[in-house]
Amino acid sequence: MLGDDPQQPGEQVRIKGEAGLQQDRGITAQADFANLQVAPWLPEKMRAHVLGHFNGHLDYKSTGTGLETAQAQGDLAVVQGVLRNVKAIKTYVDATRSPDPGDLALTICKVHVRLDQGALSAENLEVEAQGVFRLTGAIRMAKDKTLSGELQLGLTSPYLRWLPTAETDIFTHAAGGYHFATVHISGTASQPRQDLSARLLREIGDHPIVALKLFFNGSADLF
Question: Over the chain, what is the mean pLDDT?
Answer without folding.
Answer: 89
